[in-house]
Design goal:
heterodimer, A: mainly alpha, 8 helices, globular, B: about 350 residues, alpha+beta, Thrombin, subunit H, 2 domains, 6-stranded antiparallel beta barrel, 14 strands, flat
Chain lengths: ~200, ~350
């Protein structure tokens, strides 16, 4: 099935998995080819493409998002900017990068703001990840069911094997208190992220 | 208080409650602050969860895409080197020609010829050097591991390999042609069976096509393995030549299959593509004779596993019946992204 740009954007907004997968397939080869022909390897290509989609999805989910160009152009522009950033950061690893010599349009404010907003969010996500590592999986499952899947305490107790809703609720409260404490106390993420960018 | 926040954020208040709550927020700075904090916490949690889910899905999609791309573009470093070298050659030859014409004509011709030869051998040297440099750049990114073997995914995040390959390891990394290098943790070992289970947090992948068969294979059945004795994935095929291993050990099959160091830990598949064993060792005195741990033995350790979560993996990874027969090359295409090089680093002794 062919989707239009509008279908894709709506799919992103509604987090429609089928459309997201179609989107992934649609532009994978383009970005992979771009990275591979610009000194990147397979895993660079994967990282760039995945981060590109993360940036796109984050921004497209906002209410005020407007698609000013074709989706393909936008995705290419984001990927290109991410890859350029990466090349510039690791000049020593990519000695003959042709890309440095190509100019990109610095006036492309849309892309800049997309990346900035995503990075801002990324900071919170990393903090949350640190917190979650300390909290452990049971807390994660509990909070996920409550805040993301909006299950009731009864349903959660049943799904996760707590004796009753009160036990689950009590546990959720404890998790939340600990999460708050860790989340607002950690200023710097204490781990290094395993990504090439 | 958080109950109230939840109720408000999840739109479970009626109009009156909502109004009252909003008034409290506006009039009480402390509550307002607590509420803002709470809201940002919840947003961060949702974003985190969404990203997790998305990453996991994208990893799955990635593998699907990669398995469908049959022509795998590998960078041809030699070609790059030759182009660079031929440019150098042309430049030098042109230079030589100028030099040549400027030279006094009284010089004997045969001298010039030897000179040119020397230059050429210099160029050859340079070219060789260039190639070496490029080779270096290619491999420089990671220090050389102390040993290399093979491992494969049996469930999301979990790889099986041999105990002897990760024994005394300071750190273990896994990598293949499709997925970047990731650190692995050894979460379970079994010395008797020479088995190790690795955990790789980054390899969140579902729909793994590798299924272990909880059923003995038959004498004489055709088998094949995929492994990393060198830098690339290598295919080898053979057959089960005896039902017991070295010294009549019933935990192992004797297989007749050409193998090399690095193959150990590799999955042994039957012709239907079901996993019937793990390549372990080879016999040094008999050519082509090797041994593989039986998948049924691997199943039997289920009860000694350290955690319930790992026991569950066992239940899921094993099948009682062989999978539907598929053409071998499509099986290999399907499997190859799930097989990894296992690099082991040890402190220098």
């Amino acid at each position: 099935m062919q989707y239009s740009d509008v279908d894709f954007i709506n799919g992103i907004k509604q987090h429609d998995e089928i459309i997201l997968k179609a989107l992934y397939r649609q532009y994978f080869k383009m970005i992979r080819h771009f990275v591979l022909t610009n000194n990147g390897n397979e895993s660079d290509a994967k990282d760039v493409y995945h981060e590109t989609l993360m940036v796109l999805i984050h921004n497209a989910q906002k209410e005020n998002f407007i698609l000013r160009s074709s989706l393909s152009t936008l995705i290419y522009a984001i990927a290109r900017r991410l890859w350029l950033k990466h090349l510039n950061k690791h000049k020593n690893l990519y000695p003959s990068g042709d890309l440095y010599h190509q100019n990109f349009d610095p006036k492309d404010d849309d892309i800049t703001s997309y990346l900035e907003e995503y990075q801002e969010k990324e900071k919170h996500i990393e903090k949350m990840q640190v917190a979650m590592q300390q909290l452990g999986n049971p807390c994660y499952q509990l909070l996920k069911e409550f805040y993301y899947n909006h299950l009731s305490m009864e349903q959660i107790a049943e799904k996760l094997g707590y004796n009753n809703a009160d036990v689950a609720k009590n546990q959720k409260y404890k998790c939340l208190q600990r999460l708050k404490k860790i989340f607002f106390e950690t200023n710097e993420p204490s781990f290094t992220k395993n990504i090439n960018l | 208080m958080t109950d109230l926040f939840d109720k408000y954020l999840q739109h479970q208040m009626n109009e009156e409650e909502k109004k009252a709550f909003e008034e409290t927020l506006n009039s009480n700075d402390a509550i307002k602050k607590a509420f803002d904090e709470y809201q940002s916490l919840m947003n961060a949690f949702k974003d985190y969860h969404q990203k997790n889910e998305l990453e996991q899905k994208m990893n799955e999609w990635y593998l699907e895409e990669m398995t469908s791309i049959s022509d795998h573009h590998k960078k041809n470093w030699w070609q790059v080197a030759y182009i660079a070298a031929s440019v150098a050659l042309i430049v030098t030859l042109t230079g030589l020609w100028f030099y040549d014409t400027l030279k006094k004509e009284t010089k004997k011709q045969d001298k010039e010829i030897t000179y040119l030869k020397k230059e050429l051998s210099n160029i050859q040297k340079q070219q060789h050097h260039l190639v070496q440099n490029i080779e270096k750049i290619k491999t420089q990114q990671h220090p050389t591991a102390n040993s290399q073997s093979t491992g494969f995914l049996i469930a999301s995040n979990y790889l099986l390999t041999t105990y002897h390959s990760v024994q005394n390891a300071d750190s273990v990394f896994v990598e293949n042609e499709y997925l970047q290098r990731n650190k692995a943790l050894v979460v379970y070992t079994n010395k008797n069976l020479d088995l190790a289970l690795l955990y790789v947090p980054q390899l969140k992948i579902t729909n793994i096509p590798i299924h272990l068969l909880n059923k003995s294979a038959e004498l004489g059945s055709n088998v094949f393995t995929l492994g990393y004795p060198s830098d690339q994935l290598v295919y080898n095929e053979g057959y089960i030549s005896a039902m017991n291993g070295y010294d009549n050990d019933s935990a192992f099959y004797q297989i007749t299959l050409p193998l090399n160091p690095g193959n150990s830990g590799g999955p042994l598949f039957d012709s239907s593509g079901s996993l019937i064993g793990i390549v372990m060792s080879k016999n040094t005195s008999m050519e082509g004779v090797a041994f593989a741990l039986k998948s049924t033995m691997i199943y039997n350790i289920k009860d000694s596993l350290p955690a319930d979560s790992i026991k569950q993996i066992w239940t899921k990874a094993f099948k009682k019946f062989p999978s539907k027969k598929e053409n071998k090359s499509s099986t290999i295409q399907k499997m190859k992204t799930f097989i990894f090089k296992v690099y082991v680093y040890q402190k220098s002794v």
